[in-house]
Design brief:
Elements: E1 4-8, H1 13-24, E2 28-33, H2 40-49, E3 53-57, H3 63-70, E4 78-81, H4 99-124, E5 131-135, H5 150-169, E6 177-181, H6 198-210, E7 220-222
Parallel strand pairs: 1-2, 1-4, 2-3, 4-5, 5-6, 6-7
């Protein structure tokens, strides 16, 4: 089966690696990134993969723009909600924990996947094997004893909860929905000392996502396939 993927935050980091992995497998990608994003890397991919890659710009919090983009698309088989931001990394006294920063983290990391899935759901319903993957983080697990990155952690816990709710609502449509921890990845967010390259993470994630089925729906998986605590 040939798959068409929609990947948000596709211009850099894990999103770009996911895009490359899908294209290398011979599948199609609708690459979505922010209005302000640098898409040089995606433009280079476009010249190499031509009709297999479409590039659109929209913030994942702009549902009207997402809906406009969906009118240009016939079908989607897999939605990967990857776009996300960190926000303040420190404890409660971190001065970056401002109302605007907190709002931006929660809107991007929580409302973003919600708006993305809702905007493209009708296109997904046309697929024979639809799937939804949310790139979350083990930092969103309630089973932690850390004292930093308050709102990044809260946003990932919230999006995991959102995933479970989506899995319940979309059960009748036989659309599996799951969250995935990509591992500690060498990106702008993960840092240079992280244990995985974006390519290693993407390869593992795409394999898991392609195998995603209804019995997996509502679950939270590590990149190596093991289950994680919500």
């Amino acid at each position: 089966m040939s798959y068409k993927f929609l990947i948000t935050g596709a211009n850099k980091g894990i999103g770009y690696a996911l895009t490359c992995e899908v294209l290398n497998k011979g599948y199609e990608v609708i690459a979505l990134c922010r209005e302000t994003s640098n898409v040089t890397n995606l433009d280079k991919l476009k010249s190499a993969y031509k009709d297999n890659l479409e590039i659109f710009k929209s913030d994942v919090t702009d549902e009207d723009k997402l809906k406009d983009i969906s009118t240009n698309i016939n079908k989607i088989d897999v939605i990967i909600c990857n776009a996300g931001i960190m926000g303040a990394k420190g404890g409660m006294l971190d001065k970056q924990n401002t109302p605007s920063t907190i709002l931006n983290v929660l809107m991007t990391n929580v409302a973003g996947p919600f708006f993305t899935i809702r905007a493209f759901l009708e296109k997904l319903k046309t697929s024979e094997k639809p799937k939804i993957a949310i790139i979350s983080s083990h930092m969103g697990s309630q089973q932690h004893g850390s004292s930093d990155a308050y709102f990044y952690r809260a946003s990932k816990a919230a999006v995991n909860n959102l995933m479970v709710t989506f899995s319940s609502e979309l059960k009748n449509y036989k659309i599996p929905v799951a969250s995935f921890h990509p591992g500690w990845v060498r990106t702008d967010m993960g840092g240079s000392y992280a244990s995985l390259s974006p390519e290693e993470s993407a390869k593992a994630l795409i394999k898991l996502i392609l195998d995603l089925n209804m019995k997996d729906s509502g679950n939270f998986f590590n990149y190596n396939g093991s289950n994680l605590h919500l």
